[in-house]
Amino acid sequence: MKQSHYTVGDFMKRSKTDYMKSAALLGSVVVYIAMLLWTGLHNYNLLAAGAPEGLRFWGFIGFIALEVNAIALPLALHSWTHATAHRNTALLLYGLDLALLFFNTVLDYSMVAGTGLLDRATWMQAYRDFILPATPIFAGIVWPILWMLDPAHKQRQTLAELQASTQEALAQRIVEAASGLEVETMVEEAARQLVLQITRQTLALPVPVSHNGKQAKEETEDKEGGTGNPTPPLAGMKVSPSKNSRMM
Question: How many CA atoms lie within 13 A of 247 on its CB side?
Fold first, then answer.
């Protein structure tokens, strides 16, 4: 395989290309910032006019939202929105943001310069009255939409749905197991023991106290002789012969 060698001229051409590319990128950034400053000026003039007299300073909130979106959305397209639906939605929202900046700039310029655009285009009056005041709201809605379309959010939602379905299935199995024969037998036995205990307490009979369930049974068997039959009190006593029996 033949190894390629770079000459000084090649490096100079490459350096010249990189320099021109850097200059183009710098120029594009400058132009984009100039555009945002121009549109921001007109957006502020429009939105601040609709604020109360003492709060007009806060009119910058509206134009900042649109201007920041014009910067953040291209960055999101470059580094975040890679899935098809996510990227297409970001492109659409970015286009709408630029359209709002365009119409706001044209509208304010016409009102300041007195070109009579509102008289010739009556639909611009509807835009001024209904769409213009809500443009900051649109700027805020952009990001929840992109967050919900994020593949990472979809993955978390899928895992949460799987966990909820598993818990629901487990609860159903618990209900089915609770109606089984073994559980019913245990419940009946516990109920019988409870009834016997209450009956003994009601009749003032001694209630055997047990910690492990076996001690009471063993104590009862010990009292009854170990076999369930009462032990005769004289069964284990040894009778000694009397003096009269010896004499006889």
Answer: 3
